[in-house]
Automatic annotation (TrEMBL):
Keywords: Amino-acid biosynthesis, ATP-binding, Diaminopimelate biosynthesis, Kinase, Nucleotide-binding, Transferase. Residues 390-449 form the Aspartokinase ACT domain. This is Aspartokinase. It comes from Limosilactobacillus balticus. The keyword NADP does not apply. Coiled coil: none annotated.
Length: 452
């Protein structure tokens, strides 16, 4: 049995749905389907998830959300009309969407999560209705029925192990197609909580592990995962096979084609992942497999830059002799519920790299002031435009001189490199640059390893 996930770009309109349905029904192994919310139909279109965020904000602000609700409904109606589905079939979906403000939520963060989750929920319901309309035996299954239980914050949830116990009891018959909404689960208290953005990939991986799929197929809008983001490098080389570890490093740093957290259930269940193109399903796509099944043929598999970072640089003489220095900084971060991403250090210096999206300007001021007072460093500098370029490849292990090949093209382009971190993971080298240099750094390194 295969779990098949379709991203928002693969379910954006009727034609895309038809492609997805052709894919589902062309292979009897494809039994478990995971849907995202309808994505963009054209470049300046708005994803349904973003419309639902506006809907939630309007409700929170006490404004009339009628127009936004209509926009959302139109998206589903457009798809239904493509298949000639009778209008009354969509009434339960419309009622559910319109009824969202009348439910009670523990707070506005839960309200936002519940509204957002309905993009996937309504799309899964619609997919099941369409499959039935076309004569297939199909069942819409909610996370509540399947027992997908999560904890953490309402808009950045994590799955808990109990989910896998629940899924082990989940039964389905030989012929039916099951359609699950991606992106959300239920808390132990029974409230909807979503994963972080792009999190339908995570639902697919949870189901692949929990239902013991032979493969997790992730259908998107590109032929393969490329060695660099195709929006930054022209016609980058497609990756045929890569390891879970490589993909995790690359997706964490910005290969948005697959969510980094979705690798974890797949690793735990040892499920191979196949990323493929909905618009060209004959292409083999990219296989993501366990390390033991992989023989690297290239030194570098991929290069990527993440621009959503910021860094706190601290300099203090004899830092290495001060017991508890780092601990006191981390305590300040923990007090404000801020986690750090990386922390390279030297004898007198330490740089703490943070996710810029997770902290606001006011919190930055508070944290910097508290560190200044508590630690009294000789120098404290907040770097707001910090980017991390990650060069990743199983083939880099046990190779010498790779770092020279990475730094040389950067030097030739006069790109400043305030940080290099090669160590903990032997398959990745992390280069700190400034945001404005990040794309150029990717192109320079890509060129060195894939073109020369
Ligand atoms: N290295 C990469 N290889 C392929 N696509 C990439 C890469 N890095 C970023 N992308 C982008 O990821 C997009 C697919 O991800 P996303 O839009 O989230 O898809 P979906 O809607 O199917 O979930 C591609 O269209 C591409 O622009
Ligand atoms: N719809 C959600 C979750 C998701 O995974 O979407 P997509 O498959 O379009 O990346 C989002 O936009 O974040």
């Amino acid at each position: 049995m295969k779990v098949v996930k379709f991203g928002g770009s693969s379910l954006a309109n009727g034609e895309a749905f038809q492609n997805a349905i052709n894919i589902i029904t062309s292979d009897p192994q494809r039994r478990v389907i995971v849907t995202s919310a309808p994505g963009k139909r054209f470049a300046d279109d708005i994803k349904v998830t973003d419309l639902l965020i506006k809907y939630a904000q309007a409700v929170i602000a006490g404004q009339n959300p009628e127009k936004i609700v209509e926009q959302v409904l139109n998206r589903y109606q457009e798809i239904a009309a493509y298949f000639g589905l009778p209008a009354d079939k969509l009434i339960p979906l419309a009622e559910r969407l319109e009824g969202l403000p009348s439910h009670t939520y523990p707070n506005n963060n839960y309200l936002l999560a519940a509204f957002k989750a309905h993009g996937e929920r309504l799309n899964a319901q619609l997919m099941a209705i369409l499959l039935q309309h076309l004569g297939y035996e199909a069942r819409f299954v909610t996370p509540s029925e399947a027992g997908i239980i999560v904890t953490g914050t309402p808009n950045n949830a994590n799955v808990i192990p109990e989910t896998y116990v629940n899924l082990s009891h989940f039964t389905f018959n030989e012929n039916e197609l099951l359609v699950f909404p991606g992106f959300y689960g239920l808390t132990l208290a029974g409230h909807i909580a979503t994963f972080s953005r792009g999190g339908s990939d995570i639902t697919g991986a949870i189901l692949a592990r929990g239902l013991h799929a032979s493969t997790y197929e992730n259908f998107t809008d590109v032929d393969a995962i490329y060695s660099a983001n195709p929006q930054i490098v022209d016609h980058p080389q497609p990756i045929t096979t890569m390891t879970y570890r490589e993909m995790r490093e690359l997706s964490y740093a910005g290969f948005s084609v697959f969510h980094d957290e979705a690798l974890i259930p797949a690793i735990q269940g040892n499920i191979p992942i196949n990323v493929r193109n909905t618009n060209d399903p004959e292409k083999p796509g990219t296989m993501i497999v366990p390390d033991k099944d992989f023989q690297p043929s290239d030194i570098v598999t991929g290069v990527v830059s993440g621009k959503h970072f910021a860094a706190l640089y601290l300099h203090k003489y004899l830092l290495n002799k001060q017991a508890g220095f780092t601990l006191r900084i981390l305590e300040i971060l923990a007090k404000h519920n801020v986690s750090y991403e990386h922390m390279p250090s030297g004898i007198d210096d330490i740089t703490i790299i943070l996710d810029r999206n997770a902290i606001n300007d006011q919190l930055i001021d508070t944290i910097c002031n508290e560190i200044q007072e508590e630690i009294n460093p000789d120098r404290l500098e907040w770097i707001d435009n910090y980017a991390i370029t990650m060069v990743v490849g199983e083939g880099m292990r046990n190779r010498t001189g790779v770092i020279d090949d990475i730094l040389m093209p950067l030097a030739e382009k006069h790109i400043a490199v305030p940080m290099i971190n090669q160590g903990a993971s032997r398959i990745a080298i992390m280069i700190g640059t400034y945001n404005e240099d990040a794309d150029e750094a990717v192109r320079a390194i890509y060129h060195r390893f894939f073109v020369n």
